[in-house]
Amino acid sequence: MAKLNINGKVHDVKVEADTPLLWVIREQVGLTGTKYGCGVAQCGACSVHFNGVVARSCSIQVGSVKPTDVIVTIEGLSATSTHPVQKAWAEVDVPQCGYCQSGQIMAAAALLAAKPDPSDADIDDAMTNICRCGTYQRIRDAVHTAARTAAGTRKTAAATSTFAASRAEDQS
Ligand code: FES
Ligand code: FES
Hints:
It is built from 5 helices and 5 strands; from the N terminus they run E-E-H-E-E-E-H-H-H-H. By secondary structure, it is of the alpha+beta class. The chain folds into 2 domains: 1-77, Ubiquitin-like (UB roll); 78-166, [2Fe-2S]-binding domain (DNA polymerase, domain 1, Orthogonal Bundle). Strands 2-1-5-3-4 form a 5-stranded mixed sheet, with helices on both faces. A hairpin with a 2-residue loop joins strand 3 and strand 4. Helix 2 (84-92) crosses helix 5 (136-171). The longest helix has 36 residues, at 136-171. The chain is globular. The N and C termini lie far apart (58 Å). The structure holds FE2/S2 (inorganic) cluster (2 copies). One FE2/S2 (inorganic) cluster (FES) binds at residues 95-101, 131-133, 135.
């Protein structure tokens, strides 16, 4: 028995403690966006966010997960699929067969959360997920696109709050 916080919802699951988190996410919880590729932490198809850090769910045993651990899958990245990384992936038309792409998106989102303006070398270091279709160049382009979009959003938000603050000052 385990209590798992996945995408903001607590799930009580009845499984053996050594069951990989990936299987629980897919079989017990029914979130099939997270994929099985290798099962040995090599390919990254099973990537999720675990307490804000990208992790390979095929290699996490459910028995080691605490109820306070926060797990986010591709389905929980954005309620409306409008996370900057998801938008960039669509804009750049990254996927080919698509199988590896939810893992790639989760890895890219974690990278940008830690490093908002990554270099090509940063991307290559952080994005170790395997794509058998060879979409690596488009993945790189899309990460840069997402970084630019997110920077633009931050700039707009900062300008709006500066404007609001100066208006409030004028009216006081
Ligand atoms: S299935 Fe987990 S890394 Fe390949
Ligand atoms: S898009 Fe086919 S494996 Fe990556």
